[in-house]
């Protein structure tokens, strides 16, 4: 069994959703995660906010950002257990983030201190 991170990328970060739509998405996300957890394959996950976001550059300069109005933004992640990247991608296919046009879920295998996990 391996660990994978499913990274949520939004291309529609500048669109403003109503509080009602946010509630619907949150419920859909909780249901989706619940389905993965029911298989004992959910590890962890969180959304990412833009408030107080900073970027540290190679020259150690710190700037504000990233901002929600850029074309593509990282919105959050979920970590899952799966036998393969293909199984993890099957989990990703059910992610409510994909309801937004242009949004994607990137599937990446996690490397641990003792090698690839």
Descriptive tags:
about 35% strand, alpha+beta, globular, 4-stranded antiparallel sheet, two-stranded antiparallel sheet, Alpha-Beta Plaits, about 120 residues
Structure, explained:
- By secondary structure, the chain is of the alpha+beta class.
- Helix content is 25%, strand content 35%.
- It contains 2 helices and 8 strands.
- β7 and β8 form a beta hairpin.
- The N and C termini lie close together (8 Å).
- The mean pLDDT is 85.
Give me the secondary-structure topology.
Elements: E1 2-10, H1 19-38, E2 42-47, E3 54-56, E4 62-64, E5 73-82, H2 85-93, E6 104-109, E7 111-112, E8 115-116
Antiparallel strand pairs: 1-5, 1-6, 2-5, 3-4, 7-8
- For the record, give the distance between the C-alpha atoms at the N and C termini, rounded to a whole number: 8 Å
Please write the string of helix (H) and strand (E) elements.
Answer: EHEEEEHEEE
Radius of gyration: 16 Å
Portion of residues within helices: 10-25%
| Coarse structural class | alpha+beta
CATH superfamily: Dimeric alpha+beta barrel
Question: Shape from CA axes?
Answer: globular
Regions with little confidence, pLDDT below 50 for 5+ residues: none
DSSP helix count?
A: 2
Beta-strand residue fraction: 35-45%
Largest sheet data: 4 strands, antiparallel
Based on DSSP secondary structure assignment, what is the total number of beta strands?
Answer: 8
Number of discrete domains:
1
The order of strands across the largest sheet is 2-5-1-6
CATH class: Alpha Beta
Named CATH architecture: 2-Layer Sandwich
The CATH topology label is Alpha-Beta Plaits
Mean pLDDT: 85
